[in-house]
Design goal:
Distance between the termini: 49 Å
Strand order of the largest sheet: 5-7-10
Number of domains: 3
Radius of gyration: 20 Å
Order of helices and strands: HEEEEHHHHHHHEEHEEEE
Largest sheet: 3 strands, antiparallel
Strand content: 15-25%
Number of strands: 10
Structural class: alpha+beta
């Protein structure tokens, strides 16, 4: 697809996301659910309105999102820029609809996801996008695009059978895409949201051919795997 057409279609989808209604939470207006805004209190730098409550002043909100569309969305020069202004918890859905509308291929989704991998962090937060879909994207990605030289070096030097670890809050989360080469880091993930010792730490083996990529960001030694090919999963 022509790059300019692709970008315009991506902008159109972003504007559709922008006009989705705000979903309130028990903490509203401080916290809301929306593809672009985290709080109902919005600062309008475009129309001189300052801070206002979007849940109460709907007319100001209408003016604000029109300006947001013109100043933030329409000025983006690539899809990466558009993806960066969508909230993290909605980025997978944004990619999903871009693929569904045939704006992006699986490979392009994978390359963009690779750019965002460390930023999104929790790939299970978007219930609209199945884990197998995320897996298909990252498997289709260009390895040289999503890993740097050092990461590629580690990836290529992995043994035929790789021992991996995963720390999670619930036992059912064991079949995840993201594992680590570090048992210590897995144990940290298992207990990071608990005051006392808690969570679950697992060890497993996987064939090198079923390892998709390696990310060194944040010192996590992250191994992305085809979770369907994990073997000898053991609670440790």
């Amino acid at each position: 697809m022509n790059g300019e057409v692709q970008l315009q279609r991506a902008k159109s989808l972003a504007i559709t996301f922008l006009h989705l209604p705000i979903t309130t939470t028990p903490y509203s207006p401080m916290a809301i659910l929306h593809p672009f805004f985290e709080s109902g209190f919005l600062y309008d730098p475009y129309n001189g309105e300052g801070l206002f409550n979007a849940l109460e002043d709907t007319e100001k909100y209408k003016v604000f999102i029109k300006s947001f569309s013109e100043k933030e969305i329409e000025t983006c020069t690539c899809i990466s820029d558009l993806l960066s202004i969508v909230r993290k918890s909605y980025r997978l859905s944004y990619l999903y609809f871009l693929q569904k509308e045939n704006t992006l291929t699986r490979r392009e989704c994978g390359n963009l996801l690779g750019e965002q991998w460390m930023l999104i962090e929790n790939l299970s937060i978007d219930t609209n996008v199945r884990k197998v879909t995320v897996l298909s994207w990252i498997k289709a990605a260009d390895k040289k695009e999503i890993m740097n030289k050092d990461e590629l070096c580690v990836f290529r030097s992995l043994p035929d059978i790789v021992t991996v670890y995963r720390g999670c809050q619930t036992a059912k989360a064991v079949k995840g895409i993201s594992w680590t080469l570090s048992e210590e880091k897995a144990r940290w993930f298992a207990r990071r949201f608990t005051i006392k010792e808690g969570g679950f730490t697992y060890r497993a083996q996987i064939c090198k051919e079923d390892v998709i990529c390696y990310f060194a960001g944040r010192g996590e030694q992250e191994i992305v795997v085809d979770y369907r090919k994990l073997k000898n999963i053991t609670l440790i």
